[in-house]
Design a protein that fits this description.
By secondary structure, the chain is of the alpha+beta class. It has a domain of 258 residues: D-Maltodextrin-Binding Protein, domain 2 (3-Layer(aba) Sandwich), CATH 3.40.190.10. The longest helix has 19 residues. The N and C termini lie far apart (63 Å). α1 packs across α14, α9 runs antiparallel to α10 and α17 packs antiparallel against α18.
């Protein structure tokens, strides 16, 4: 191995680290919240001096945020109460934060937000809580959470984190309300056999060229459907494309106090109308049984998703695989350039026309937190400690360290036989670097919701002309934003 030798050594060291011996108590309950707790253990390790590396290219320091206090202390000796929706997080917490007295309360994902809000009025108030991408903005803009500066973490401490992760949790006054420890940047994941047959090539470099922008994407969608007489589609779900379309936008919908309609609006309607009228997708709902079956049965060429989604949809298993030393190197598309290339198993990954993310897990400090110093320690260990995050990366997490993930992208041991020898991190790290977060996420979400409702009304014939669509969009947005 050449380029991956350094990280391979680091990964080997991290695997040799002793794991925590403490065993949290747990309850196996599927519908009601369950909790896990740990007892304090002696530890000589300190993470207060841990600083992320800044040796990589890209953003090196976020926008300055609110003032950070010179000292932060715990106001209580009670166990740190953590709410979350990942069943195994209690064990992971015990592995990496073995000297912290905590209680982990697990809530089923479909009940999580409701139970979390109720917890703030209960005796078991949270100190820390998990948050997903879907509800992150709502909790960022709420009084349920406090900024990381209030627990002693400065924006300058985040120089090694991917910029979109803290911007996604940033208020208008630049207070950062959450830090991500598990990332889900999105790429285009395609069936190699179908790509070879209907796109002319299965190789990532060739597929990237054919699907580099939305106009090219539409051309390929038409050709695939036409050449198969509609039996095969490029994409299973039209709405999935719509989500990605808006991911790259950062232009304001409001100018001089007035809602405006620009070229993005027209382009979105044109794109979606052609997909619908020409039946260029299967019109299945993303994540449904029909959608998943269509992907696995070869009814469509590709889907958009993160490695987490790929693991659920097509059975991909992320992580580090020890391989025998060879002469292989990794190209810019994540392919291995070697004479004995692994046998293809059906899938590959390339950049999507627009960079985006389809999930992730953030940790937020609750407004009810009375152990702020300990909460800060947890955030630092899971999002800044290089040793801990390296171990998590080995086990398959996309961690919030640009340094570590770029080393993963260079390490041949992350090349996947499942992906025909590709190292997916070559593509995904670059995608994570170019994700755009709108300056006003609330306005952008309002706009997207209005546009999607109006499009459904338009294609059903309820709204007859585009002029009427635009007029209703302006009126609706002005009402939502209090501008009328």
């Amino acid at each position: 191995m050449k380029v991956g030798k350094l990280l391979t050594t680091i990964l080997a060291v991290s695997l040799a680290l002793p794991m925590c011996a403490c065993k949290p108590k747990s309850k196996d309950e599927s519908k009601e919240p369950s909790s896990e707790s740990s007892t304090e253990a002696t530890s000589s390790e300190s993470v207060t001096d841990t600083e992320p590396s800044t040796e990589t290219s890209g953003p090196t320091e976020p926008t300055s945020g609110p003032t950070v206090p010179s000292a932060v202390t715990d106001e209580s000796e009670d166990p740190l109460v953590i709410y979350g929706y990942e069943e195994d997080f209690g064990k992971e917490f015990a592995d990496y934060l073995k000297d912290i007295d905590y209680e982990y309360i697990y809530v089923a994902p479909d009940q999580y937000v409701q139970e979390l809000k109720s917890a703030f009025a209960s005796e078991k108030k949270p100190d820390l809580f998990m948050m997903n991408a879907e509800a992150l903005t709502n909790f960022t803009d709420s009084d349920y959470s406090i900024g990381i500066e209030q627990v002693g973490i400065s924006s300058s401490d985040l120089s090694d984190q991917f910029e979109y992760t803290y911007k996604a949790a940033m208020t208008k006054d630049h207070s950062i309300k959450a830090l991500a420890y598990d990332l889900s940047p999105t790429a285009l994941i395609y069936n190699r056999k179908l790509a070879d047959k209907y796109l002319g090539s299965a190789e990532p470099s060739q597929v990237t060229a054919k699907l580099s922008d939305w106009n090219s994407f539409m051309e390929q969608a038409r050709e695939v459907s036409m050449n198969t007489e509609g039996a095969i589609k490029l994409l299973a779900d039209r709405h999935q494309l719509g989500r990605l379309f808006w991911a790259g936008r950062n232009a304001s919908w409001v100018k001089d106090g007035k809602v405006t309609v620009d070229a993005d609006f027209d382009n979105f309607f044109s794109l979606q109308e052609k997909l619908f009228n020409d039946t260029l997708t299967l019109e299945f709902d993303e994540g449904s049984e029909e959608w998943t079956r269509a992907i696995n049965d070869g009814q469509c060429v590709l889907f958009f998703g993160s490695l987490n989604k790929a693991s659920k949809v097509i059975g991909y298993v992320p992580g580090h695989e020890e391989k025998e030393p060879d002469q292989s190197e990794t190209t810019a598309t994540g392919e291995t350039s070697e004479t004995t290339k692994p046998e293809e198993t059906g899938w590959s990954i390339v950049p999507a026309p627009t960079a985006s993310y389809d999930g992730g897990t953030w940790l937020m400090v609750a407004s009810s937190c009375d152990r702020k110093a300990t909460a800060a320690k947890v955030l630092k260990i899971l999002t800044m400690d290089q040793t801990v995050m390296t171990d998590m990366a080995v086990k398959g997490r996309f961690v919030n360290s640009r340094t570590i993930m770029q080393k993963c992208a260079q390490d041949p041991n992350f090349a996947s036989d499942f992906l025909a020898g590709q190292n997916p991190y070559v593509v995904l790290v670059a995608e994570a670097e170019r994700i755009v977060i709108p300056d006003d996420q609330t306005v952008q979400k309002c706009a997207e919701n209005e546009i999607h409702k109006l499009f459904d009304a338009y294609i059903s014939g309820e709204i007859e002309t585009m002029d009427e669509v635009k007029q209703q969009f302006i009126i609706g947005m002005e009402e939502l934003l209090g501008l009328s």
